[in-house]
Amino acid sequence: MIRPPRTPWFTLGLCGLLALGVAAARHIARPRYAPPTRVEDAVLRIAINLTPNTLDWNLSSDFSPPNYTVARATMRGLYTWTATQDLVLDVAGACAVDDPSHPVEYTFRLRDDVFWSDGAPLCAADFVLGWRRALDGKESKYFSDIVGVRDYLALPPGPGRAAALARVGFRALDARTFQVRLAAPRSYFPGYLAGVYAFYPAPSHRLRGLSEDQIRAYYRRTGGGDPLALGPYRIREWNRLDESIDLVANPHYPALPGRVPRVVLFPSDLATMLYDQGRVDFNFLDDGPSTFRHPADRRQAALWSTFWMGLSTRLLPLDVRRAIAMALDRRALGEHVLPRFRAASQLLPEGFPGRLGDGDPRLRALPPFDRAEARRLVERAGWTGRELTLVYHENGTFLPEAALAEGVRVQLAEVGLRVRLLGTRTMTEEMLTQDRRARHELHFRRTGADFPHPQEFLLPFTYSGDPAQDNGSYTGFEAGGAGPAYRRFEREAQATAEVAPAAMADRAWEAQRILLAEEVVVVPLFYPDRYFRTRPWLRELTIDPFNFIDFTRLTCSLPVKP
User: Which alpha helices (DSSP H) does 381-400 contain, by range?
Assistant: First the structure.
């Protein structure tokens, strides 16, 4: 018999030493968390999934959410939101309009106490430069309500386009007065100016006379105080090697006692582990189990957002769509899924402009929860035992889609409808999701607000102008399948932007009534919250209703060096 060779004692000893070394290294790599003792020593470290793809905010894209995080920390606009989410003027000290109820012309007088991070005063020319550049960027759609913009965007590059730019309806009347003229009243326009970073100004005193290539190069480099900032923070460094963003306090921003002087953002998908090890100070709780695992230091912020299920108007008859809406018990769907589940009845989320109060009698028009009637409708339509496909995202996010999909499957089975769940996991599958939504009976979606106006939640259901595709809801409704009902919906949805603010809620409700009750195109399920953890010494670090980290009021409860 051949015996295996014996392991020498010195080899075992060496392995033991290596094991001790690995254990020691792990112990060193996971130090006990110790909070800073002074504001001057505080560094707020945040791990994020992605870093910004540009610091050139006028030419950025809404397909890179991390851009918003840094833009809102370093820049300011003509309007902003208060802590209670009221829309107020920011860098503009006053705004005069031509008609208080239906304004098309806004004349902003800039404040005289707003300075760039190098000490230069903000001026009207900064908005002219920034907005002109944004017209050639990826967010030019937000400018299309301004006089002359549509004509400008329709022209190819050349002398004619340069002449059209001079006719676009925004200009500097003097050093501190900036005027904007719209082609027609649009009540959502001030919300654009607060929330869309394409509308931020650019430092004309630093960029005037430079070519577009030189301006882009300016935004690509960091150091020496550039690029300049208006917000509470400025960019100290963008390290391209580890993709970290280092933010420090803007010395020319109004000081808050105890402001955290430094913020470091870096990419990592191990944020929870890093938080537990004391290596980061903020942690999104982005899956269901983690939200229940950390009740002691768990915090939450309500989003202006609605998670809903779209119903195909091409594949499902109206009786079946109505039966689906009546069969779903939203509160039961959310039981044990999230710490707080705010069941949805309307498409517009709680606290949102234009939403009806919960006691409004008009809400009685919505399909009630009635499984007996739902079962009768399914039988009358001859759909008992038919199989539907529900498309959802299977990968872990702060939205528990897999659990909700299973709940929908169980509840619809009680009225005679079988549901096949089609989850997406890989990047390739994610790219096919839009096509799958359009081809199957049911799909999940979340609509989140970029600006506080009903248009944000109604636009996905409007016709894009391309008969080959939907504009965003994938229900088929916007492709004209509902005929006269769609035309009435489009008229009401558009009216929310055109009527005086006092009448906006009535028109928004009528548009919702068509979607939710008359045609049953969509079933709102719940209004999401965002869950996170943060250190006790940090104050006012939260998530805003638009789902971005809010640094604007951030301070800490540490002593300040005398």
Answer: none
pLDDT for 522 equals 97
Separation of alpha carbons 200 and 109, rounded Å:
16
Count the Cβ atoms, other than its own, within 10 Å of residue 484.
7
Percent of the chain with pLDDT over 70: 89
In this prediction, residue 257 has a pLDDT band, given cuts at 50, 70 and 90, of confident
What distance in Å separates the CA atoms of residue 262 and residue 232, rounded to the nearest whole number?
A: 11
β-bridge pairing 105-110 and 92-97 = antiparallel
514: three-class secondary structure by DSSP = helix
CA distances from 287 to 268, 332, 337, 399, 532 (A): 16, 19, 10, 7, 11
Check residue 501 and report its DSSP letter: H
For the full predicted model, state whether its pTM sits above 0.85: yes
What does the alpha-carbon distance between residue 553 and residue 352 come to, in Å, rounded to a whole number? Answer: 22
DSSP for 246-298?
EEEE-TTSPP-TT---EEEEEE-S-HHHHHHTTS-SEEE--SHHHHHH-TTTE
Q: What 8-state DSSP symbol labels residue 20?
A: H
Structure tokens of 376? 């009768």
Does the CA dihedral 290-295-300-302 come out positive or negative? positive
Alpha carbons 127 and 450: distance in angstroms, whole number: 21
What mean pLDDT is predicted for residues 530-548? 91
* Whether 494 contacts 454, CB under 8 Å: no
The packing angle between helices 484-498 and 501-513, to 10°, is 160
Question: Which one of 236-240, 256-260, 382-386 scores highest in mean pLDDT?
Answer: 382-386
Q: What average pLDDT score do residues 172-179 get?
A: 98
Q: What angle do CA 95, 98, 100 make, to 5 degrees?
A: 75
State whether residue 333 is helix, strand or coil: helix
Q: Which amino acid is at 559?
A: P
Structure token digits, residue 554? 């951030």
Contact 434, 468 (CB under 8 A): no
β pairing state of 418-424 and 387-393: parallel
Task: Please check the confidence at residue 409 and state whether its pLDDT lies above 90.
Answer: yes
| 405 within 8 A of 392, measured Cβ to Cβ | yes
Q: What confidence tens digit (pLDDT) does each residue in 84-115 have?
A: 878 899 999 999 999 988 899 999 999 999 99
Say if residue 1 is exposed, middle or buried (CB neighbours under 10 Å; 0-12, 13-18, 19+).
exposed
Q: Measuring CA to CA, which residue among 73, 408, 442 is closest to residue 229?
A: 73
> What would the mean pLDDT of 472-483 be, rounded to a whole number?
76
For residues 435-445, average pLDDT: 85
